[in-house]
Design a protein that fits this description.
55% of the residues lie in helices and 17% in strands. It is an alpha+beta fold and 77 residues long. The protein has a three-stranded mixed beta sheet with strand order 1-2-3. Strand 2 and strand 3 form a beta hairpin.
C-alpha cells in the first residue's frame, strides 16, 4: 500500500521506520530490555494509558539519525 502511494507521489524510494511501542507497565517491568531496544533501534516509545507518548532515545541513536538525515539531504541535492 505504501509503495502505491509513493509511486503516485513520484517518490522512487520510500523508507519507513517502525518504532517499538511499550505500554508504561511493560516498560516498568522490562526497563533493561527497553533500554537495550532503544540502543539497538535508535529509539522506542512509551505510551501511557491517557494516550501521552514519550520517546526514549539513545545518544547513539540521535547521532545515527542525524547522519541518516544528512546523507538523505546530500543524496537528494
Amino acid at each position: 500500500m505504501l509503495k502505491v502511494h509513493a509511486e503516485a507521489l513520484g517518490i522512487e524510494t520510500l523508507e519507513v521506520e517502525v518504532m517499538k511501542v511499550y505500554s508504561l507497565s511493560e516498560a516498568r517491568q522490562n526497563f533493561a530490555a527497553v533500554l537495550d531496544n532503544a540502543q539497538k533501534e535508535g529509539a522506542v516509545r512509551i505510551m501511557r494509558r491517557d494516550g501521552r507518548i514519550f520517546i526514549i532515545q539513545s545518544v547513539g541513536g540521535i547521532i545515527a539519525l542525524r547522519r541518516r538525515s544528512c546523507t538523505a539531504r546530500s543524496e537528494s541535492a
